[in-house]
Amino acid sequence: MSVASGNLPPSCETLPMLFDAHLDLALNGVDWNRDLRQTVEDIRAQETALQMPEAGRRTNTLSLPELRESGLAVCLATLLARLEPQINHSFGWTSPEACYAMAHAHLAYYRALERAGHLTWIRSRADLQSHADRFAAAPAITPLGIILTMEGADPILTPDTVFEYHAAGLRALGLTHYGTNRYGGGTNSQVGLAVDAVPLLKHCEQLGITIDMTHLSDIAFWQVLEHFQGPIHASHQNARGICNWQRQFSDAQIRAVIERRGILGVAMDVIMLQEGYVRGVTPPVVTLERAVDQIRYVADLAGSIDCVGIGSDLDGAFGNEQTPVGLSRYRDLLKIEDIMLRRGFTPEDVEAVFFGNWFRFFMRILPDEESASQE
């Protein structure tokens, strides 16, 4: 096969290879001021000693050593700087200019980790293929590969600012997050796309940036499909048939992503897996069996396992107080393999969900080596 088609590397000898479509690494490293070079235990101990009361503190699930021990080969790493006009909050920024600045702080964080040898930046198909081959051959010494994504377009000052981010490595973009922003309606809103979203989508189509349909309002979801003909995916997105509220996709939305050759990543936030869960009030009772229910649900709608992967969203401003029972740290994702096999999935199905489906998607939509090197 050519690089454009993609050769799946041989499986690692010790662990399955993982590809996670959504990790907020810079949010943890910059906004939450965690040293991700440390172990999970060390970070928990520090936050416990400081008696940090905020939800998500002392219960982290990931760090760079933890991700290595888990077999994570590639992830989509976020730029996340949400516009929050009010000042009485601990998450978000009060102006577009501040969002822009914080997104660049996240960029600088990833660049620093790359310079120190902790990350490998993936910008092209050639990058992805060579990194996957290296990781399969030597997972213990190969840095984590990252594909840069943006969760919520608040840091994009004007639609043409996306060209700057693309030159910096951006390959995926979600327009909205919770509520509304300057580009449209997100989770828990009934607002469609804003006027500036249309030229932004056209620029993304021109650049080959995949649009992450996660967090769009129902109205905005269908409008994106109308105005954007490029690649789409849903990085961390579960089904309303599993947990019935607006954050999840309806069956029609899932089918629409599948029809456009997109992948949906199963998320491990229990608020997206447990019906009626209320953050800080309801204890998690579902287990990783529910995550496998989600995998089965999408596979049944698609008629194939080829449209579902992992998009864990772990430590996305929450910790294991808000994950399925039995998922205390990132490596616990590997328990999904045994559950899938017990429930009739094949080893090939497991490999597709853990790595192959996202790998093939990005081998299809990333630029080739020549076009990526011209930035």
Task: Give a quick set of tags describing it.
13 helices, 11 strands, 7-stranded parallel beta sheet, 375 residues, globular, TIM Barrel, alpha/beta
Textual characterization of the structure:
This protein is an alpha/beta fold and 375 residues long. It has one domain: Metal-dependent hydrolases (TIM Barrel, Alpha-Beta Barrel), CATH 3.20.20. 38% of the residues lie in helices and 12% in strands. The chain is built from 13 helices and eleven strands. The strands form three sheets. Strands 1, 2, 3, 4, 5, 8 and 9 form a seven-stranded parallel sheet that branches. A hairpin with a 2-residue loop joins β6 and β7. α1 (25-31) packs across α4 (96-115). The longest helix has 20 residues, at 96-115. It starts with 17 loop residues before the first strand and ends with a helix.
Q: Topology, please?
A:
Layout: E1 18-23, H1 25-31, H2 40-49, H3 64-70, E2 72-79, H4 96-115, E3 119-121, H5 125-137, E4 144-151, H6 162-168, E5 170-174, E6 180-181, E7 184-185, H7 197-207, E8 210-212, H8 218-227, E9 232-233, H9 251-259, E10 264-266, H10 288-302, E11 308-310, H11 335-342, H12 347-365, H13 369-373
Parallel strand pairs: 1-2, 2-4, 3-4, 4-5, 5-8, 8-9, 10-11
Antiparallel strand pairs: 6-7
Helix pairs in contact: 1-4, 5-12, 10-11
